[in-house]
Amino acid sequence: MSYNILLFDLDDTLLDFGANETESLNKLFQHHGYTFSNELFQVYNSINKQLWADYENGNIVLDVVLNSRFSETMLRLEKVVDGIEWENLYRELLNNGSQLLMDGALEVCQRLSVSNRLFVITNGITQTQIKRLKQSGLYVFFENIFDSQSIGFQKPSKEFFNYVMSQIKDFNIDNALIIGDSLNTDIKGGLLSGIDTCWINRNSQKYSAEIQSTYTITSLVELFDICPPMADSGGEPSAKN
């Protein structure tokens, strides 16, 4: 199969969100006079993941995720805080933090952009994701950025991907590939919308019987086996399940 429309997830696919998140959370809690311990991170992480899951399942709106995650975290410590104020500062810290690339991200985007059309598909916040892409140096390689905040729907919903497909000129579903690290958003979204998928399974996550990807790789550079850059002779994909 030949793909020339590549739909990349952003966080933990191209950008190391985990590193930026840890740095920003440390600064946020220190600013408010708290030590950001591992125990506190576990509380925050549990609340944050559940809120994002509820959002991705269509049960709550994005503002609820953003404006309540810190207030709910601090309630576990029996502290009442302004969740919106905390979120605004956290967003500023994320925007200005270190935008570290995942291994191989720059090389992959540079080489594939020569002969392919690259797009970002993200459940992140519009301005945050654009700024992070620009700071990372990857922004120039992408034809467009599609985010759930602007679209009004989120991955993995069909509505999100239907919008993306409708906005890409000369879109051909047979020539499109979704690349991402999340089975529940990126890969499931591909299954629901009929687009082939490439799951980046860096950390030996368990495979899912219900959510199966067209391809599975363990690093971004393995994408060259599926989408050979223009300068490469077209070998057959080797990572297909």
UniProtKB/TrEMBL annotation:
SUPFAM superfamilies named among the record's database cross-references: HAD-like
InterPro entries: HAD-like_sf, HAD-SF_hydro_IA, HAD-SF_hydro_IA_YjjG/PynA, HAD_sf, PGP-like_dom2, Pyrimidine_5'-ntase_YjjG
Pfam families: Hydrolase (PF00702)
EC number, as in UniProt: 3.8.1.2
Top-rank taxon: Bacteria
Gene Ontology molecular function, alphabetical: (S)-2-haloacid dehalogenase activity
Key words, A-Z: Hydrolase
The keyword Amino-acid biosynthesis is annotated on this UniProt entry: no
Keyword Plastid: no
Classification via PANTHER family: PTHR47478, PYRIMIDINE 5'-NUCLEOTIDASE YJJG
Name listed for the protein in its UniProt record: 2-haloacid dehalogenase
